[in-house]
Amino acid sequence: MILKPQVSEIKNIGYYLGRIILGIGFTMFLPFIAGLILFSEPNPALDFLISANIAIFIGLALSWLCKTDRDLHIGPAMVVIALSWLAAMALSAIPLLLSGHYKSFLDACFETMSGFTTTGLTLVQDLDHLSRTHNLWRHLGPFIGGQGIAIIAILFLVRGTSGSFNLYLGEARDEKLVPNVMHTARFIWAISIAYLILGTIVLGLVGMSIGLKPQSAFFHAACIFMAGFDTAGFAPQSPNILYYHSLMFEIVTIFFMVIGSFNFNLHYQIWTGNFKEIWKNIETRTLLLVIMIVTLITMAGLRQRGVYSDGMILFRKGFFQIISGQTTTGYMTIYAQQFIKEWGDLALTGIIIAMALGGCACSTAGGIKMLRVGIIYKAFRQDIKSVLLSPTAIVVQKFHHIKTMFIEDKQVRAVLIVTLGYFFLYGLGTLVGVGLGYPFLNALFESTSAAGNVGFSCGITDASMPAILKVTYIIEMWAGRLELMSVFALFGFFVAFVKGR
Amino acid sequence: MKVKSAFFFVLLCLALIISSSSCFAQVSTSSDLLNNAKQYDGKTVNYKGEIIGDVMIRGDHAWLHVNDGSIAIGIWAPKTMIQDIGYVGDYHKKGDTVEVSGTFHRSCSEHGGDLDIHASEIKKITSGSSVIQPISRKKVYIGTFSLILVLLFYALKKFFQSRGDTSRI
Amino acid sequence: MKKIAIFYTVTLGIFWEVAYVVVIIGVGWLFALAIQFIR
Prior knowledge:
The complex is a heterotrimer of chains A (501), B (169) and C (39).
Chain A: H1 7-27, H2 29-38, H3 42-65, H4 74-98, H5 105-116, H6 132-147, H7 149-157, H8 161-170, H9 181-209, H10 214-229, H11 247-260, H12 264-271, H13 277-280, H14 282-305, H15 311-326, H16 336-342, H17 344-357, H18 370-388, E1 398-401, E2 403-406, H19 409-435, H20 440-451, H21 467-481, H22 485-499
Antiparallel strand pairs in A: 1-2
Chain B: H1 2-21, E1 27-28, H2 30-35, H3 37-40, E2 44-58, E3 61-67, E4 72-78, E5 93-94, E6 97-108, E7 114-126, E8 129-130, H4 137-163, H5 165-168
Parallel strand pairs in B: 1-2, 4-7
Antiparallel strand pairs in B: 2-3, 2-6, 3-4, 5-8, 6-7
Chain C: H1 2-37
């Protein structure tokens, strides 16, 4: 028997949702100040003032109306998360719409959802004439969403640790770095800020060495870092990373993409002295192995087609795209159409596999995640062993993730369910794409890119694509980032609301 | 004899007229170049568009990007060719419209496989300009008004919450 | 004293993360070179 949600439960959700919306409103003051003071772009800055006020008003109103001291349990927390990502998408789209660089509100929502989920698929028009203020917001989205929208609320606006913890869980972060979730949230931000400073300086210096003027170099550096470390894939100019025509720039970007795809827990271990973890961890090992396999497949495909002539080019065009896809960043040193026109099916299959599998868990990367891939592999091994050995033998399989653990059925089940969920998402988007007339491989590529939060486009993502496909990709990006669970919780909540007694 | 020289003279004139007007005859669009990259690879092309972004000087050459409304293609040109560039497009400015003539590369071996054009000539078609953006009065009003509303609302909320502390929830 | 220790550990940590990426880049570079000679 489904129980209809009580008013108090709805109020509970409304309150926390309101606090998060409030947080989003405050973050919009960053581009407002930057636009006014740094960039001398008053009109764009005003767009953010207006939008911030709208968000703050809604946030205040919601948290006032739904004021409650009730703590947030895991179910409602997931509903809050799912809803707050939708709210963030819509509210953050307002300033972008006001910029005049988006053909519709839907397009602007697509952009912000793409940003927060660190996907990187873009529908912006005339990017090369977009104001720095608006461009900064495009790149801040991944930085905020990558670390976690709820984390902002946890840090500043929400009281009560169990509610905070449930919000943290709902955002697909099921690893506690330290027992206290507040400290975990703080660490995640500390490491992001530390790398932001380091990354901006390094990229800025590289930028100046390749011919960018200092102000431009550091603006590009901050943007590229935020979208790179947060494995998003937005860039300030339309040619994406190809704009820089620089091996050095590409290599530094590779560093930030890979490091950005690490599990935050891994960062925590290494930054607190447990250096061995980087070689022992199941995710880093799986990532290395998967990269090798994917590189083999993709490069064989490229060679087969004769697309790229020498080693350096295979590295800068082939390997760069492979790493970009594997870490689910989506930075490109080729034009979107070149994927379909030049790469050929085998190489594209390699990239699709990379995108589908993704980066590490509890990071800004998307996809099925290396932890799951590793566990599935180990579970396979365990099952094969038990088939081959005597029926009375007990086969145990270990894996190392911070601690050494045994593979347990319950765990494998959870892993497989989420993995199947991702395949369902990839398939759903492909189905819609094919149904609308796009070729199969193109549709599969784009769908995997959306649900895996990658950001590679083979040319489908365009302002002229059908609205239903835009909505499909938005749902895929959203569900992919939240690893489906929160989205299902929201769906379940509505079903309970309608059908419950 | 006279007819012959007259004939050659007319031919010469025609040749001059044709060559000067077709100096930059066939302009390829970026989609054209991308979709037929293999056919254009290594050939001389003419490409027209607006200069955007940054002009990146590297030694005695420079990178610039020309956007024809669809995509921006990287142009590798000797420093001498970029002296006349006045405006480079961004939020504040519309860049110079130029016509570039040069060798197209689908995957340039000199530049790590980049798709580019090595310019042999850059001709300025129209000069760019500063795009003056006056501060939008409407936005200032809405911005200030909404800010005041929010502050008022916050004050109101605080007032009611402190007053009805126990009775509210 | 404690601050220096933290700074030192963090720097070493970054070093190890960078080292991992160097390995990845090395793998990619090797594959790119090797694949030229196959076929």
